[in-house]
């Protein structure tokens, strides 16, 4: 089973929830759940689960290289590239590596076979054991690289679970391509939100992704002090169960700021998270 | 000489559009006869690679110069490869003024990109 933790809005507590959920379930499962930090633009789950990375691998895409001696500047490559990563300008064919998505269309369609593909490294994927014997893997995009998706895809392909092993994916914030790449293929989407207009606005967008990908989902409300009926009304109307509410509390904020997990700050949360997980599995066919 | 300039509407009396890749119109003008033709900028609504798309259009038109307020690094490299000289508007306000200044040799020709980096978001 693959469980993804997403939010839409950043800073709602995805990593706080995902890491404590992993620790709460680690003792219950053999092997313990596989934890994947898919937020490759700003991975931070390692601060809480403290892995020792034993394996690492460069990742990236294949980008075109044009052999000017063979190129007739026919423009076919520029015409098929929907990202405008290759342009024919007079007697020159230019490649713009930062716009290339590595689809290979230009190479495949060049009538002169003037294009070959060369690797363009965009980041690294790493794995190793973490706290409570949790196998941990993450991707990290290089500074200045604009595209997170290839790194996420290669992380998911590389860090495969054992048969029957539970997988927890810590998803990036937002609702764009990297989020879809990290959520796709999961069996359940746990949406972490906060009772604010911004939190609700982005929860609505994230819930649309879940619906579009046909993934059952539920909500955890973090910093859940005071009343914000709009959030409860939305969840009720959408059929999204609210699985847990975590209060806005100074002790939690201070503990997390020191790199401690929620279950270390408040050990009783281990039970709450096991109950959340039981509710999720009970809801699935 | 045939030149191209970025404008905010389809007219010779239009205000200039300072953006190259995302400027609203590319105005193709004959500087002797002032005959003109306006083309919606193919880069204006592109999710990414706007400057390259606009530069590709400019290169295909085989013009003697291109005038805009700002050329990003991708557009600069593309236009340089195409061998199209780039000029910047600075204080010029309308397309007609820009053409007069260009003909009088009063516009600055660019030899490096106007900006160090592109300012839009990329999505995978």
Short description:
The complex is a heterodimer of chains A (285) and B (124). With 285 residues, chain A is α/β, with parallel strands linked by helices.
Protein architecture, described:
- The complex is a heterodimer of chains A (285) and B (124).
- By secondary structure, chain A is α/β, with parallel strands linked by helices.
- Chain A has two domains: 218 residues, Rossmann fold; 46 residues, Alpha-Beta Plaits, CATH 3.30.70.20.
- Chain A contains eleven helices and eleven strands.
- In chain A, the strands form two sheets. Chain A has a nine-stranded mixed sheet with strand order 3-6-7-2-8-1-9-10-11, sandwiched between helices. Chain A has a two-stranded antiparallel ribbon with strand order 4-5.
- In chain A, helix 5 packs parallel to helix 6.
- The radius of gyration of chain A is 22 Å and the shape is elongated.
- The mean pLDDT of chain A is 96.
- Chain B has a single domain, classed as Nucleotidyltransferase, domain 5, CATH 3.30.420.
- In chain B, helix 1 packs parallel to helix 2.
- A six-stranded mixed sheet of chain B has the order 3-2-1-4-5-6, with helices on both faces.
- Chain B has three helices and six strands.
- Chain B starts with a strand and ends in a 15-residue tail after the last strand.
- The longest helix of chain B is centred in the middle third of the chain and has 11 residues.
- By secondary structure, chain B is α/β, with parallel strands linked by helices.
- Chains A and B meet through strand 4, helix 5 and helix 6 of A and helix 1 and helix 2 of B.
Features:
heterodimer; A: 285 residues; alpha/beta; Rossmann fold; Alpha-Beta Plaits; nine-stranded mixed β-sheet; two-stranded antiparallel sheet; 34% helix; 25% strand; B: 124 residues; Nucleotidyltransferase, domain 5; six-stranded mixed β-sheet; 3 helices; globular
């Amino acid at each position: 089973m693959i469980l993804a933790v997403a939010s839409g809005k950043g800073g709602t507590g995805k990593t706080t929830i995902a890491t404590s959920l992993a620790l709460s379930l680690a003792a219950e499962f053999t092997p313990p759940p596989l934890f994947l930090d898919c937020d490759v633009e700003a991975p931070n789950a390692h601060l809480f689960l403290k892995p020792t990375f034993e394996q690492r691998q460069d990742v990236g895409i294949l980008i075109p290289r044009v052999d000017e001696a063979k190129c007739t500047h026919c423009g076919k490559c520029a015409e098929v590239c929907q990202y405008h990563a290759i342009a024919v300008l007079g007697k020159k064919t230019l490649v713009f590596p930062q716009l290339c998505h590595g689809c290979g269309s230009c190479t495949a369609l060049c009538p002169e076979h003037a294009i070959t593909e060369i690797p363009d490294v965009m980041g690294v994927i790493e794995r190793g054991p973490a706290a409570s014997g949790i196998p941990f893997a993450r991707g990290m995009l290089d500074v200045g690289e604009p595209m997170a998706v290839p790194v996420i895809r290669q992380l998911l392909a590389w860090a495969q679970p054992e048969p029957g092993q539970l997988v927890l994916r810590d998803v990036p914030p937002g609702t764009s391509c990297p989020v879809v790449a990290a959520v796709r293929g999961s069996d359940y989407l746990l949406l972490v939100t906060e009772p604010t207009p911004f939190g609700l606005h982005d929860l609505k967008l994230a819930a649309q992704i879940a619906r579009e990908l046909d993934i059952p989902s539920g909500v955890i409300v973090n910093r859940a002090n005071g009343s914000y009926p709009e959030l409860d009304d939305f969840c009720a109307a959408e059929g999204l169960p609210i699985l847990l509410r975590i209060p806005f509390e100074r002790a939690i904020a201070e503990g997390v700021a020191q790199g401690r997990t929620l279950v270390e700050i408040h050990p009783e949360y281990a039970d709450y998270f096991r109950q959340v997980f039981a509710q999720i599995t009970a809801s699935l066919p | 000489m045939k030149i191209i300039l970025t404008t905010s509407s389809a007219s010779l009396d239009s205000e200039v559009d300072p953006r190259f890749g995302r400027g609203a119109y590319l105005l193709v003008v004959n500087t002797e006869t002032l005959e003109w033709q306006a083309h919606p900028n193919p880069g204006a609504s592109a999710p990414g690679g706007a400057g390259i798309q606009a530069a590709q259009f400019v290169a295909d038109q085989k013009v003697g110069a291109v005038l805009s307020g700002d050329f990003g690094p991708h557009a600069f490299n593309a236009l340089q490869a195409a061998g199209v000289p780039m000029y910047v508007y600075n204080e010029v306000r309308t397309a007609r003024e820009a053409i007069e200044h260009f003909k009088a040799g009063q516009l600055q020709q660019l030899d490096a990109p106007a900006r160090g980096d592109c300012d839009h978001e990329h999505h995978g």
